[in-house]
């Protein structure tokens, strides 16, 4: 009998499986990419190793994205290895084809995506073309894990599922993947082709999940922009009773909700006159009081699924959805502290009670002093019991809710600890009793006007005690933690309306989406769907899955459809243009969640054997043809939409400039176009859409930039300034890119005047001042000036280096400390890939270089591996000339150089040594040390932070009582030899 090959989704899971099987299956030998004993071989993927692609004869490469090549609907899909993991794929396939391997076990994550990862690897190993399988295909069984504890893994191997049981899920997984490819690829290419008709390459991505998600954000922004604020008033009163004062707010007891005006509310008055009349009518008058008090309870929220965890972490800690998923995944994989996080369920299986008690026992005995007593209390009081609110098989999908495992974690980072605590608190809360309140509603009737007062007092905190809330009954009002308890009013007493004042307010537009609220909208997108069956399908899935929603949001930001501003997500001009296009072309189905609802409904039918894969894919192919046909056959000049009129007049004739789908165009002083002068420019120069404030600035200043996000005709990104320049032949203004190709004044002899400019700091070469000039930062002695016609220094560095803008603040930091902050938008001219680096002054090389951040390994070194010291930070020459700022050119970026050996340094003078020590130092290190001394002793001038006051030691170095920060480097140069 042969061996069984187990294929997990990640290396850490493979290790967990080996640890769990060792006590029952014997010791495993470790090899480079797998573990093996007499009966088992265990290996893993690293996520997706294989992806689908159109066969070569049906594929359309970039540069040929025209309607002539669309739609692309291949009769079958080929597979291609994911570039980064080709080595891992080869190793797994080699193991699968070994003659002594008689059976495969799919141990990828339980769910549609895990099923797809395994099936594509298996097809790549044994397939011949399309989905045909060779005769050598080996039997497959499925490991379905909900938890990564050793016992849960062993239980999973005792209950392996058959290949036949998984066929429905496999078909649904493959169909969803291929359908997303067909709609996404063809939709993206069709919209890109449409937007690139006038030249250039305007990448316009669409997708089944990303586009409806974007539509939600754009629709909210449209509501905000169209919102007209209205004035309203509230009337607030203070009533004086025998026992003290209490507040009240006027309301209309006869008010009914107006379906046409959501701003109408019972406590709002819509004129100052009416509000003032109410105040005058009741001021100083006695009130009759009616009061109702009743108990109220509040149960804890349900257990976390991934989306609710991401929302809570975003609200509490500001974590992005991507960050929360990464932390939860680490707590699951590395620390074994949480159950599987990529779940959409908020309940536990009905047979999980014993495990929950075991986990509660671990928490009770843990060192978490702030939570252990609550776990002990839950066990002692018998709170952990089988309730349908927590244990319900019907509410468990592929995975159950996120809870702590019985394994106590150690070595957590601060962020991991915060998230773990959050999950533990929610886990404890769900078993604790409800919080109990006493809610009082008091109505004070004065003449014909009613005032409402609400009081809410926490009587028994229940689960809220876990979150630091205590009972408030006996606490005086105003003391921390007190509730809104009301002063008593005895029966028959008539308190007087002592103070009554109208309060003027304004209606507010709806709030922009944050990641937390957008995740909630994606999860609950089904509520926008009218069809009952589709809405039911969407209730389970929403837009995307818990595992992919974070990536969808990050993808929209990466494609410049949205940007983050603090915690707000703001759609860009590119997003509005896409929505205008899809509505105008009549393919609005791409913007609506019904599409996902329909797919999920049919995929669910496929999982249960009620719909064939072929029938579903035929429908998808027809939908794809429809989208491409709509874009291809659209023959009007512009797309209908809600377009802007600019505030800035036409630079040529002073006429009104208006927006249409493709351009900003002068419509003449009349605004009708009859007297237009012909001035216009594209809305999307080189594939980058103007924002509204940018286009106003561009027209006003006739220049803007440097701006990121432009793309060449071949699709490569670049950064540049754009300018309006007058064309003598056409007698009009034209948009042009400006890459900063100024002639070198050192060659032309042009005298540069820096008067009126503020220096950024001292030149690291000669100590003179550094200024902005053109598209560079230059030493004043590197160009001809009135004071020094012949340059004596050559320090110069670009304001844009490999597409990374270097702003004044970063250059100031480099000159003051020797290094910028970490910059993350460099793009290699050789590989076209983005990278992060610092810019640092390299004294030995005499120029600005790249310095790469050192990263500690995520995992400890293997046993037996020799301990190695961290290598010195690598540096590579940073481009100094304006050529570095151009769109991708033939010239390659300098390759990283080998780390340089540190030189012996410069010896400080006796006076300087008294401040920074006598050890030889580089000039930049001397600057840093003296700045540390200045800050430690508070020597920066209180009124002018750029001035430094000398103490007794620095007086000897400076030679005067005060210097400016820009003089430092030059002065230190005289003290270093």
TrEMBL record:
Cellular component, GO, one term: cytoplasmic replication fork
Q: InterPro entries annotated for this entry? A: SWIB_domain, SWIB_MDM2_dom_sf, SWIB_MDM2_domain, Topo_IA, Topo_IA_2, Topo_IA_AS, Topo_IA_cen, Topo_IA_cen_sub1
Return the similarity comment.
Belongs to the type IA topoisomerase family.
- Top-level taxon of origin: Bacteria
> Which segments constitute the Toprim domain?
3-149
Pfam families per UniProt: SWIB, Topoisom_bac, Toprim, Toprim_Crpt
Reaction equation(s) it catalyzes = ATP-independent breakage of single-stranded DNA, followed by passage and rejoining
- Which residues are the signal sequence here? none
Keyword Magnesium assigned: yes
User: Which species is the source of this protein?
Assistant: Ramlibacter humi
Where are the stretches annotated Disordered? 854-906
Give me any GO biological process, just one: DNA recombination
Catalytic EC class? isomerase
Domain (Topo IA-type catalytic) ranges: 166-628
What's the protein name?
DNA topoisomerase
